[in-house]
Design goal:
single chain; mainly beta; Methanol Dehydrogenase, Chain A; 34 strands; globular
């Protein structure tokens, strides 16, 4: 922990002062931008604004944004109770956040349009229920419509507008059945647009396809038997990157839209799923990044045991640039790498206590583990000859971090145990918003968010909206953080 942040061990009277007091003290220290990063992946003309159009910021899944965070000054946080886990919070060009959430009871995916001034839900729309991971990944298109696939294997574009009474409503603007390409019992896990306006999709069972909802054309390709796709997909002018339970692919499309494999790179998937992971294999949505085009490289984290490796490939050929051991204090991750320019950041989820797992998650080896935390930075050498581990810390990030190229900081949520100095987790853990200096890996500012499972960010992604507002999904709704 950074020296500017009060260490819990220095406060033996924590039970008297309370976690809120400690984190308020920490919030008094200003954040300091250290490094300028860039470039971001090219903006996809068929997606919403850069940094807020997809769960991972952009269609290249950089988990970076050109928008600044809250900035210096006093921070406030507000919990918006939606009785749902909200892993996807996107913001359109009109400034209205759109959240795709799964209610605790019934688990029927529900879209919320949020008030940008308060975070309150203005209106909702339910969509057909699918698998646990199906419907989690979605994006905003260039008309601020949410693009997702429901449990009926239908591609939806969901818009928002004011009705004749002046009230907000969410509505299905268009729909296209994917049932001819997606087998019964399978579910779409990821969607992203390409540079021709087609929607690429991938299913848990290993089907990859394109859908043109202007013509109704759907084309698909089934990857080798036994290869599952349990994370989202990424698109760039170079093609579509997908990581299965065995390998990473770059695909392109034939003239009729049929997916074709440009290259395939197998990785070490380890002996089994690790605790704190939702599937056996990489936990990464592949990330495009690079110092020249913003898509020079593709990166994932493998599932090697006992120590995982960050893998970097050349986008054009698939040639491996490097394999670097990372997350040495807790080597397992369900999170997509954050990457921009020459730098890649990855946070550990090893041992994270997820309340539910997908039906086909498989046995964890070991059966359980403490959530020790872990956060690593790897830099690709300027000449592309390899990579170097720049730092490795034990920060206990409980969300996918977001890097702002505007303020030069990593933004995330950290989880602190009820008993300082331990690695155990409980329903009484503390959660705090944190800003991290990417140059050093040191935490420079925190703001207490709340105590208990109501505030569990569950390794979901936060989104930085215009005005320096951070929206972080939790197991029961959304936390809105900004300068008060």
């Amino acid at each position: 922990m950074d020296s500017t942040v009060p260490r819990p061990s220095l406060f033996p009277r924590a039970a008297v002062l309370g976690a809120a007091t400690l984190f308020t003290l920490a919030a008094a220290f200003p954040a300091q931008a250290a490094t300028t990063f860039g470039p971001l992946p090219p903006h996809n003309p068929y997606s919403g604004p850069q940094g807020t159009a997809t769960m991972h910021g952009d269609t290249g899944s950089s988990d970076a944004t050109p928008l600044p965070g809250p900035g210096t000054g006093s921070l406030t946080s507000k919990r918006v109770a939606l009785q749902s886990a909200c892993p996807t919070i996107l913001v359109g060009s009109d400034g209205y956040p759109v959240a795709l959430c799964t209610p605790i009871f019934g688990q029927v995916p529900t879209v919320h349009l949020l008030d940008p001034a308060s975070g309150a839900s203005l209106t909702t729309l339910t969509i057909a229920k699918g698998s646990l991971l199906g419907g989690v990944y979605a994006y905003l298109d260039n008309q601020d419509r949410l693009v997702a696939v429901d449990g009926n294997r239908t591609l939806l574009r969901i818009g928002h507008r004011r009705n004749s009474s002046g009230n907000w409503e969410l509505y299905v603007s268009s729909s296209l059945s994917l049932a001819g390409a997606v087998p019964e019992g399978d579910a779409v896990t990821g969607v992203s647009p390409d540079w021709q306006g087609r929607v690429w999709f991938a299913t848990g069972g290993g089907v990859v396809g394109t859908a043109d909802d202007t013509t109704g054309t759907v084309r698909s390709l089934t990857l080798p038997a036994g290869e599952r796709i349990d994370n989202s997909i990424s698109t760039a002018p170079d093609g579509t990157a997908i990581s299965t339970s065995h390998a990473t692919y770059l695909l392109n499309a034939a003239a009729d839209g049929t997916p074709t494999i440009t290259w395939r790179q197998a990785y070490d998937r380890g002996p089994a799923r690790k605790p704190g992971q939702l599937s056996w294999g990489t936990g990464s949505t592949p990330t495009f990044f690079g110092p020249r085009s913003g898509t020079d490289y593709v990166t994932i984290v493998d599932n090697a045991s006992p120590t995982e490796n960050l893998l970097v490939y050349r986008t054009d050929t698939g040639a491996q640039v490097c394999s670097v051991p990372v997350l040495k204090s807790g080597s397992g991750s369900e999170n997509s790498p954050v990457a921009v320019g020459n730098s890649v950041f990855v946070a550990s989820t090893y041992g994270y206590p997820y309340p539910a797992l997908p039906e086909n998650a498989g046995t964890s080896v070991p059966a359980s583990a403490d959530f020790t935390g872990g956060f690593s930075r790897v830099d690709v050498r300027a000449d592309g000859s390899g990579c170097d581990l720049k730092w490795d810390t034990n920060i206990r990030s409980s969300a996918v971090p977001r890097l702002s190229t505007a303020d030069g900081l990593l933004h995330t949520i950290v989880r602190s145990p009820l008993i300082p100095g331990t690695n155990s987790t409980s329903i009484l853990d503390n959660f705090a918003y944190a800003e991290i200096d990417p140059e050093t890996g040191k935490t420079v500012r925190t703001k207490y968010v709340g105590t208990g499972s109501l505030f569990d960010s569950l390794q979901m992604v936060g989104s930085i909206a215009p005005g320096g507002v951070v929206y972080q999904g939790t197991i029961t709704g959304v936390v809105r953080i900004n300068n008060g």
